[in-house]
Amino acid sequence: FADASSYVGGNPEGDLTVVEFLDYKCGYCRKAHESVAELIRSDGNIRLVVKEFPILGEESMMASRFAISTLRIAGPDAYQKVSNGFYESFRGDVTEATLTAYAQELGLDPAPILAGMNAPEVTKVIEANHLLAQRMQISGTPTFVIGDQLLRGFAPLETMQSLVAEERG
């Protein structure tokens, strides 16, 4: 699941991998964001792999391209700030102007990130994530792969914790 084009968070050496397919314009992804963050924080031994899966229109695509471009240009810490911020602080429509202001708010230089949004490498990441989702019969967000289990849609923290416990046996 993880490669150079995916953000890997949590504990990169963790004993269990959780993969999240997300779309920044998805209300259920926003709702799940806090549960995922708490799961990673409270467990300490989960490796989180994020798969950008923009499926809800042009703004979703722009937000994902911006996040992936941030990962490529400014690195994983900046990506994490951008990704978290899309759920925690970003409001309004996703446009070049709002993304510029957002990058500046986060202390990032917007010019190279915006310039990199349509790079072939960014397009390849999105296409690869869509192909992977298709092969796994994933059509909605959020979708989680927890060990060998597929969890479609939002689930409360307790449900995620019990799936993690189940996977660990």
Please explain how this structure is put together.
The protein has seven helices and five strands, in the order E-E-H-E-H-H-H-H-H-E-E-H. The protein is an alpha+beta fold and 169 residues long. A five-stranded mixed sheet has the order 1-3-2-4-5, with helices on both faces. Helix 1 (27-43) links the parallel strand 2 and strand 3. Helix 2 (58-74) runs antiparallel to helix 3 and helix 2 packs across helix 6 (120-135). The two termini are 22 Å apart. The mean pLDDT is 95.
Question: SSE layout and pairings?
Answer:
Elements: E1 7-10, E2 16-22, H1 27-43, E3 46-52, H2 58-74, H3 76-88, H4 96-105, H5 110-116, H6 120-135, E4 143-146, E5 149-152, H7 157-168
Parallel strand pairs: 2-3
Antiparallel strand pairs: 1-3, 2-4, 4-5
Helix pairs in contact: 1-3, 2-3, 2-5, 2-6
SSE series: EEHEHHHHHEEH
Number of helices: 7
Judged by helices, strands and strand pairing, the structural class is alpha+beta
Most strands sheet: 5 strands, mixed
Relative helix content: 40-55%
Strand proportion, as a percent range, falls in 15-25%
Termini distance? 22 Å
Protein traits:
alpha+beta; 169 residues; five-stranded mixed beta sheet; 5 strands
Describe the structure concisely for a colleague:
This protein is an alpha+beta fold. The protein has helices at residues 27-43, 58-74, 76-88, 96-105, 110-116, 120-135, 157-168, and strands spanning 7-10, 16-22, 46-52, 143-146, 149-152.
